[in-house]
Amino acid sequence: ERAVIDLGTGWEPAGGVPEWTLVSPEGDGLLRVSLPSASATRVSDGKFGDGLLESFHVVRAPEGGMFVDFFAREAFLYRVLELGDPARLVVDLKPAGLGSKVPLPAEGGKTVLVEPRPRARISDALIVSGYSRNREATNTITLIDADGKILVRRTIRSNDWNHTWGYFEATLDLPSFSGKGTLKVGTEGAHDGSFEGMKITVWAGR
Predict the structure, then answer these.
(1) Model pTM?
(2) Interior CA angle at 116 toward 115 and 120, to 5°?
(3) Which is it for the CA torsion 80, 42, 31, 54, positive or negative?
(4) What band does 190 get if pLDDT is binned at 50, 70 and 90?
(5) Residue 198 forms beta bridges with which residues?
(6) What is the pLDDT of residues 162-180, one digit of tens each?
């Protein structure tokens, strides 16, 4: 299966491929292509068919530039090709014959939670990271214990929302708790308190 990133300068195709890096942890269904010189995108996300690749998101990176996250339905092998005039970065993927070792990032509403993953074991201090297109770049993170008690609640801003997906990250100091918890990340309505986002089950402990 093939994914192609078209590269340009302004509204014109670029002649050569700029600097890029790629990260794909072994056994993970996530492949991330970083483009430090990118500043804008015509496409912010999309779905693939029913094959190996599921979806992609174009995200404004915290250190500048942008990155593209590809989500695959199972573990994969890949190769990368640079093509010029017009510039394209081509990623070929094929199934590795093994299931993913970790669940894919959770998605809900206009929020994608990259870390922690569903059913992860969490401990102090907890790093929560992902990206969203929530209005005004506002993201509320809430950790709830098995009895419904709110343990931690914090609102942070992502670095974009209007033009493409904006990255967010927060480090949470966790109080002591045991057993199962629920982590919610998203946005709440100002008037009716309705929640739009995603929630995952997490477990206390390393």
Answers:
(1) 0.93
(2) 155
(3) negative
(4) low
(5) 185
(6) 999 999 999 999 998 999 9
